[in-house]
């Protein structure tokens, strides 16, 4: 991640986006299950293995051969342990490089180790926005339906859906039925068949996240089908 794109944790309003960045990096390293601050119990890590005792005697004996197998198992276990420790150290560095100087100094006083789970638990306890803080944050930038992204041109569908992803995230704590606005955003101009099929969502228990993901899957499938059937992507669904 470039320096200009870093999300620095300095106040509670930064928490959700900041934790999302940490989670993405931890998932890449395969360590999220070990550092998720929402878990009550500490996940079990790979323990540092103990080497087998040294063995003297005939190298061709059965006892020596068994010892050799134990040594090979130890080497494999040690490699797994070292890889996990390296990845935990990497995510720890990632976290510490993305907190404000104030919180870095606070962590030096509060944390008993540099383990990322302990660091995240300290920050989670102190920085997670309360329910009413989230509502206030969402209302501080009121969402105007008339300024929401309208139906896109074909070349910008993905950017358009990404914009709706951001709107859904911002509105999650203040507007439970924003998916109605998504359906009203001239989708009939984009794909009339899909729009008519999902217009009935008004009478269903839809949420915006499901609707956006539903359309994204539909859009990708329709493009793939066109490429297989026609060798190109049709301008409109009715084109033959």
Automatic annotation (TrEMBL):
Residues 40-60 are annotated as: Disordered. This is Uncharacterized protein. It comes from the Eukaryota.
């Amino acid at each position: 991640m470039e320096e200009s794109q870093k999300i620095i944790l300095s106040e509670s309003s930064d928490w959700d986006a900041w934790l999302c960045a940490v989670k993405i990096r931890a998932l890449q390293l395969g360590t999220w299950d070990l550092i998720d601050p929402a878990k009550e119990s500490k996940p079990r890590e790979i323990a540092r293995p103990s080497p087998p005792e040294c063995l003297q005697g005939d190298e061709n004996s059965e006892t020596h051969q068994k010892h050799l197998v134990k040594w090979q198992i130890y080497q494999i276990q040690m490699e797994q342990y070292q890889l996990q420790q390296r990845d935990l150290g990497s995510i720890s560095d990632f976290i510490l490089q993305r907190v404000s100087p104030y919180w870095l100094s606070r962590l030096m006083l509060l944390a008993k180790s540099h383990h990322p789970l302990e660091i995240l638990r300290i920050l989670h306890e102190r920085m997670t926005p309360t329910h009413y803080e989230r509502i206030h944050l969402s209302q501080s930038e009121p969402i105007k339906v008339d300024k929401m992204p309208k139906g896109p041109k074909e070349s910008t569908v993905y950017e358009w859906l990404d914009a709706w992803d951001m709107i859904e995230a911002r509105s999650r704590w203040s507007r439970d039925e924003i998916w109605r606005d998504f359906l009203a955003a001239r989708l009939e101009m984009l794909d009339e068949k899909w729009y008519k099929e999902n217009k009935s969502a008004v009478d269903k228990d839809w949420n915006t996240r499901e609707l956006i993901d539903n359309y994204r899957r539909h859009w990708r499938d329709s493009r793939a089908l066109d490429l297989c059937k026609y060798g190109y992507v049709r301008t409109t669904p009715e084109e033959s």
